[in-house]
Amino acid sequence: MQTQQNAIDWIITEDIIAYPLALEKMQARVEAIIRGEKNEAIWLLEHPPLYTAGTSAKSEDLIKPNQFDVFQTGRGGEYTYHGPGQRVIYVMLDLNKRGKDVRKFITELEGWIIDMLQELTISATTHPDRVGLWVDSQNVNAYSESKIAAIGVRLKKWISFHGISLNIDPDLSHFEGIVPCGISNHGVTSLQQLGHILTYPEVDMLLKQTCEKRFGLVQRASFESL
């Protein structure tokens, strides 16, 4: 497969990937980017049901500690859920050539998912006092607003890792085992709950199209390339 040196490797894994393996692969790719050996990369995958704890996680926000495996992680944020029906997007981009502005980078990640959802006529917003992306859910659940995507990143020598989780059609009851991102007075929703039935390839195509408008050209790469 021919590759372009400055393009972002776009990696899609169809198999469900265990969290420790994903972390190992992601950290190895970050080190390779630091050494200048590999391109930037965006990895789209799916995890088995699990909870992750960010650097700001509070023990009382883990309501059901025995429901799923819990992993401590170095990303920012609090508790999040990952599982089938959720598109996890690990973003390994080099901020050395993207301005070294963390706030701007997070805004660009948020804008990417906002753009993607807009393609489905879903209006998503951010809030200064709440992390993640939020949509009007008053017609689908008990909350006026619900989170549809979470964002949490970490940097090493200005290379990002971890990233975004977008709810396509997960079991929303699994979020009841935590206080998602420490926010208890709002809900969690998904594309399916909002009436949008999409396959992973359909979601991935929208993500790719909107990603390129913000971060530059992407090219397909294999899982083995990680």
Q: What does the oligomeric state look like here? A: single chain
Number of domains: 1
Number of discrete helical segments: 3
CATH topology group: BirA Bifunctional Protein, domain 2
CATH class: Alpha Beta
Question: Can you give a write-up of this model?
Answer:
With 226 residues, the chain is of the alpha/beta class. It has a single domain (8-225), classed as BirA Bifunctional Protein, domain 2 (2-Layer Sandwich), CATH 3.30.930.10. It is 22% helix and 32% strand. It has 3 helices and 12 strands, in the order βαβββββαβββββαβ. The protein has helices at residues 19-34, 102-118, 200-215, and strands at residues 8-16, 41-46, 50-53, 69-72, 79-82, 86-92, 124-127, 130-136, 145-156, 159-167, 187-188, 218-221. The strands form 2 sheets. Strands 1, 2, 6, 7, 8, 9, 10, 11 and 12 form a 9-stranded mixed beta sheet that branches. Strands 4-3-5 form a 3-stranded mixed beta sheet, with no helix packed on it. Strand 8 (130-136) and strand 9 form a beta hairpin. Helix 2 (102-118) packs across helix 3 (200-215). The longest helix is centred in the middle third of the chain and has 17 residues, at 102-118. The model has no long low-confidence stretch (mean pLDDT 94).
